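Forwarding the complex inputs:
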Amino acid sequence: MTTPERRRIIRAKKISATLLFFFIAGLCEIGGGYLVWLWLREGMSWIIGSLGGFVLFLYGIVPTFQPSYFHRIYAAYGGIFIIMAVFWGWLFEGISPDKFDIIGAAIAIAGAIIIYYTPRKGEKATWQKK
Amino acid sequence: MAEEVVASGIPITLALFFAAAIAEIGGGYLVWLWLREKKTVALGALGAIILFVYGIIPTLQPAEFGRVYAAYGGIFIVSAIIWGRIVDKKKPDKYEIIGSMVAVIGALIIFYAPR
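Prediction (whole assembly, two chains):
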C-alpha cells in the first residue's frame, strides 16, 4: 500500500541514509588523514599512521553504498566536505566561523543538493533507487 | 589567513591540492571498481594504497590549513566532474554543472572574502 504519506516517509529515510553516508565518509577522511598527520608531523608511532591508512581505505568503501554515479557522488561530497572543513577548523583549530564562512558553507551545501538530489528525467531519483 | 597563503606558497599549495584530489578520487575509484563493478580485489588493494598516499600529501603542505581546506573542496568538486568525463566517459548533466558552480562559489567566498 503506497499512500503519499508512506512515500514521503520512504523518501525521508532514503535521503537521511545518503546524508549519513556522506557524513561518515567525511569523518573517515578527516579522521584517517589526521592519524597519518599525527604519525608524520607530530612524531607519533607508525602504528597510528597505519591505522590512519586503514581508516582512509574505509573512507573509500563508504561511497560504494551510495545509490548514484561515481562522479556525481564525489562532486556532491565535495560540497559536504566544505562545511565539514569549516567545522573542523572551528573545533580543532579554534577558528570560529565568521559570516563569510557560514554564507560560503551554506552555498556549498546548496550546490551539493542540486548535484545530488535533483530528480532527472529518465532516471530514478536518488530516493527511488535501491 | 588566505592572504598569507597567497603570499607564501600558493603554487606549492595548489599543486599539492591537485595531487591530493587525484590520489583521493583515483584511490576511491579503484575501490569503487572492486566493489561496485566487481573487478578484482587487487584493484581494491591498490586503491587502499593510493588512499594512504593521499593521507600523506597534506603533511607536505607548507601552510596551516583552516580555510584553505574549503578551497580544496572546490578543487575536489571540479576534479570529480572532470574524472567522470574522462575516465567514466560520463558527460556532466545540467544539474551537475550548475550545482558544481554553486558549490565552488561557496568555496571561493570562504577563501577570498575580505576580512
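The mean pLDDT of chain B is 88.
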